[in-house]
Amino acid sequence: MTKKRQTATIEARRSAGNAHEVLTLKSGPNGHRRTPCTGCPWRVDTVGLFPAEAFCHSAGTAQDMAVRTFACHEQGAQKPATCAGFILRGAAHNLTMRLKWARGECLDVSDGGHALHESYRAMALANGVAPDDPALAKVRP
């Protein structure tokens, strides 16, 4: 019996500056990146590639008991995958990720030798989000 690949559906689409968009995906494959991609926002050496607004839109993924995960921007909406940087530095309080780890999933991730921001808050601040921005109010340290 062939297992049918579940496709993601776009739940929300929000503009983040002139050239960027933050997608909220519902369902889809359980894929994840094994290492941070070239332009991964979790990498310290990529600060400034995305507008601050994008980090405000995605802040909910780093809240306690969040069920949405931070997706890899290079994978896009056609082939969504959880971001390796998020798995390593931003998912400790995310319910979906904690359940995956309990099932033995997403344990094969490494930083690939890249310096990563220590937390979602650190990443957002480094990319221009104000420390008192309401989007960061519920983000876990």
Question: Care to describe what's here?
Answer:
- This protein is an alpha+beta fold and 141 residues long.
- The protein has one domain.
- Helix content is 20%, strand content 9%.
- The chain is built from four helices and two strands, in the order ββαααα.
- It has helices at residues 52-58, 84-89, 95-102, 120-126; strands at 9-15, 21-26.
- The protein has a two-stranded antiparallel sheet with strand order 1-2.
- β1 (9-15) and β2 (21-26) form a beta hairpin.
- The longest helix is centred in the last third of the chain and has 8 residues, at 95-102.
- The N and C termini lie far apart (45 Å).
- The model has no long low-confidence stretch (mean pLDDT 86).
Number of helices: 4
Helix content: 10-25%
Strand arrangement within the widest β-sheet reads 1-2
Assembly state: single chain
What order do the SSEs take from the amino end to the carboxyl end, as H and E? EEHHHH
